[in-house]
Design brief:
The chain contains ten helices and 20 strands. The strands form four sheets. The protein has a seven-stranded mixed beta sheet with strand order 16-15-14-17-18-20-19, sandwiched between helices. A six-stranded mixed beta sheet has the order 2-6-5-4-1-3. It has three domains: 65 residues, Roll (Archaeosine Trna-guanine Transglycosylase, Chain: A, domain 4), CATH 2.30.130; 110 residues, Transcription Regulator spoIIAA, CATH 3.30.750; 194 residues, Vaccinia Virus protein VP39 (Rossmann fold), CATH 3.40.50. The radius of gyration is 22 Å and the shape is globular. Helix 9 packs across helix 10. 27% of the residues lie in helices and 28% in strands. The mean pLDDT is 96. It is an alpha/beta fold. The longest helix has 18 residues. Strand 12 and strand 13 form a beta hairpin. The protein starts with a strand and ends with a strand.
Length: 399
């Protein structure tokens, strides 16, 4: 384990339990500082501040424990069990109508750099730091203890998230158990196929579960447009709730193929009417919106990928959000609803709301905010790490 000593007066954020230590706060390092190494962090006068994973870069240490210079022997088991108990309180671990949820949400579960999503009886791991990647076997062992025979497989999908500059051998594969993909999960009774091997993120966007349910409540008898639809999360809820018609638009042919399978799955299961009207459009979402007629849709979903993955991209991202939302507000029918989202962590909720405000002003239409949306409870925000609140959404009523 390496030892890191901070500059004088640079330990205040650690004392407030913020899990990040930036490289500029470091005075000296004792030992061989390689990506992923465990690091004991000390104040300038030698007091133990915590233990975490070291990584070369702006965020030099992601802390796992505070006020100590070592990790307990059963650290991983205790931390994963605590996260499991939280999901149990939320009613997610034994829920026949919802069989997929996030178990570990990075800093929100005091395990910065780690994501674990549960799909039925399979855990899908994504390491966002070298330290978490190197700890995959220990994490898997802890999962097996906490879940027992309820866990059938553990799949590592870190090749696109772990830092490539760290020289890690990145290759997605099953760490434990047998191949279980694709799988059919349930979410509030609606069914979805999930393929964690080839799908985006861990295979599905679990963070929109509550917001998808809200879309269903506004969809009955309405013509709905779902932009950037991926495999049709919002579309399935709208169809299951009795939407008059749903049009789903995405530029990915692979995603659209899975969407068609999801529609058939829900029709076969009796969740969606066999006579439901659905149109799949493989096209650029922004181009399609520009080409659509005014008033054609009563509900429009605007859920684009992250426009800003770092702070330097924020100005361009805000302009993109403004243009996209102006088009949606302009095209929605009178008395219509626009659900609009940003998943860019670098863009805070105030800046996003201001971009949408500017978009509304540009159209000249009267717009009310009905709901302010965020991520669900299984994507918790560490109170000492407010940066973890990354998903922002607004529900707009447009006269």
């Amino acid at each position: 384990m390496i030892k890191i000593y901070l500059k004088r007066s640079r330990e205040e954020s650690v004392k407030r339990f913020h899990p990040w230590i930036f490289s500029g706060a470091i005075h000296k390092i004792e030992g061989v500082a390689v990506d992923g190494a465990l690091a004991a962090v000390y104040s300038s006068d030698g007091k133990a501040l915590g233990v975490g994973h070291y990584q070369i870069g702006s965020i030099a240490v992601r802390l796992l424990e505070f006020q100590t210079d070592s990790l307990s022997g059963n650290f991983w088991e205790k931390r994963i069990e605590a996260a499991y108990n939280c999901r149990r309180v939320l009613g997610l671990t034994e829920n026949g109508s919802t069989t997929a949820y996030r178990l570990i949400h990075g800093e929100g579960d005091m395990l910065p750099g780690l994501i674990i999503d549960i799909y039925n009886d399979t855990a899908v791991i994504q390491a966002h730091s070298a330290g978490m990647f190197l700890a995959r076997e220990a994490i898997t062992a802890a999962l097996k203890v906490v879940y027992g025979n309820k866990l059938r497989a553990v799949y590592d999908k870190s090749s696109s998230t772990a830092p490539f500059k760290a020289g890690l051998q990145l290759s997605d594969s099953y760490i434990f158990g047998q191949e279980t993909h694709p799988a059919a999960i349930k979410e509030n009774g609606v069914c979805f196929f999930v393929d964690w091997c080839s799908g985006q993120k861990t295979g599905f966007f679990l963070d929109q579960r509550d917001n998808r349910e809200l879309v269903g409540k506004y969809s009955k008898g309405k013509n709905l447009l779902n932009l950037f639809c991926y495999t049709g999360g919002f579309s399935m809820y709208a169809l299951a709730s009795g939407a008059k018609s749903v049009t789903s638009v995405d530029s990915s042919g692979t995603a659209m193929d899975m969407l068609e399978k999801n529609i058939e799955l829900n029709k076969t299961s009796g969740i969606v009417s066999k006579n439901a009207t659905h149109n799949s459009v493989c096209d650029d979402a922004i181009d399609y919106l520009k080409k659509s007629e005014k008033g054609q849709y009563d509900v429009i979903i605007v859920d684009p990928p992250a426009f800003a993955k770092h702070r330097a991209a924020i100005p361009n991202a805000l302009r993109a959000y403004q243009r996209l939302n102006a088009a949606a507000i302009d095209k929605v029918s009178p008395g219509g609803i626009v659900f609009t989202f940003s998943c860019s962590q670098a863009v805070d909720k105030t800046a996003f709301a201001e971009a949408v405000f500017s978009a509304a002003a540009q159209t000249g239409r009267r717009v009310r905010i009905l709901h302010r949306l965020t991520q669900p409870a299984d994507h918790p925000v560490n109170i000492y790490h407010p940066e973890g609140e990354y998903l922002k959404g607004l529900v707009l009523y447009v006269e």
